Known about the structure:
Number of helices: 10
Largest sheet: 4 strands, antiparallel
Amino acid sequence: MRRISSSMTNNDIQGNLRLQESRLNRVSNQISSQQRLQSLREDPLAAGHLVRYQSYLGRVQTFEKNAQVLTDRFALTEGYMDQSLELMHRIRELAVTGANGTYTPEDLKNMAEEVDELLKELVQNANATGPDGNSLFAGTNTNRRAFDIEMGAIPGSSEPRISTVRYNGNIEGNKIEVDEGAYLETFSAGNRIFWSEPQQLFSGRDASAFRVPEDSTILIDGKEISLNAGDNVYALVAKINDSGAAVKASVDPISFGLNLQTTDSRQLWMQDISGNVLNDLGLIKDATQLPPYNLGDSVRVSGGSLFDTVIALRDAMLSGDQEAIGGRVLGSLDCAVNNLVTRIAESGAEYERAVNNIERNSLTALNVTNMISREGDLDFTKAVTDMKMMEYVQQATLSTAGRLYSSSLLNYMR
C-alpha cells in the first residue's frame, strides 16, 4: 500500500524520468558505438556467440598474415634460386665447350676465369639475406651466413682462389600455422638446395659383431631413431630404412661396414643424441664434433655440393684436364642442375599452397565478419527511431510534470 502525500507525485515523476533517461542513454551508447550489445546480460546467448566469433576472426587474420609472410619469403628465395639456375646453365655451357677437345690449355684457363667469377656469384646467392637481415638458406640458423668459404692455392693459378665451401647452417625447418591445426613446413637448408649428387658414406669398420650396448638415440637427416640394447647392425639398418629419413642404409657384403646413401641430392646429417652408436661404428667422431663435418676419419665420402662441382670444373680447366671436364665434372653438373630445378619446383608448389591459404582465410574472415555483424551490430534505422520516440516521451513527461508541480495534496482536499 502506498502512502498518499504531497511528495508522491514528484517521486513518481522523478523515478519515471530516470528510467527514461537510462533507456535513452542506452540507445545513445548503441548509436555511438554501433554495437547492439552494451553488456553481456542483455543477450547472453548472442554475447557468447559474439566472443567466439571475434576470437576466431583474430586467429584467421593471423593465419592469413602468416601465409602472406610465407609467400614473400618463397618469392624472394625463388628469385635467388632462379638466378643460380641461370648461372649453372652458363657454367654447363662452358663445360661442354671446354670438353670438345678443340681448345688449347690457354683457352681453358681463360674459360676458368669466367667459371671462377660465376662461382663467386653462386656463393653470393647462397649467402643471400632477406629484408630482415636473416639468411635465406641457413635453415633456422638465420643469424649467420649459410656458407663459409676457404681460399687456397690452386694449381695453374697465380693467386688464391675459393678452394672449399662449407655449409654453416642446419637442416631444421620452420612450421608456420596457416589454419586450425594445419602447418606449412618450410625447409631452406642450403645443403639441400645447393647440392649436386646424393651423398654416400662408406664405413671402413667391421660391424658384423656390433651390438648396441645400451638404449640409445641417433639422429639421421633430422629424424630421431631409437635403438634398444642388443640391437645388431642389421636391426640398425632396418630402423634407419623405416624411419622416414631420406637415407638408405645397407651393410657392405665385403667389409661388413655400415653404408649410408641419401635418396636425393643432399648432405647427410648424423649425430649421436644419446649413447655412442655412430661413433662406435666409425661413422662420426665423438660428440664434441657437430654435423655435418663430424665424419670419422675412416669414412669414405662420395657426392659433393654444387660448389664442389664448379670448383672441380675450374680446377680441371686450369690444369687442362679435358677428359675430367667431359666426364665426371659434366655428369656432376647435370645432377646439380636437376637438383636445383627440383628445389625450385618444390618452392613454387609451396608458394601456390600459401597463396591458396591466403585466399581461403580471406574468404573465411569475410564470412566470420558477417556472423559478428549479425550477432553484435546495431540496426541503425531502428535505433534512431527508438531514440526519437524516447526523446518525445521524455519531453511530454517533463511538460506534464511542470504542470503537476504546482499542485499539492491541499488541492484535492478543497
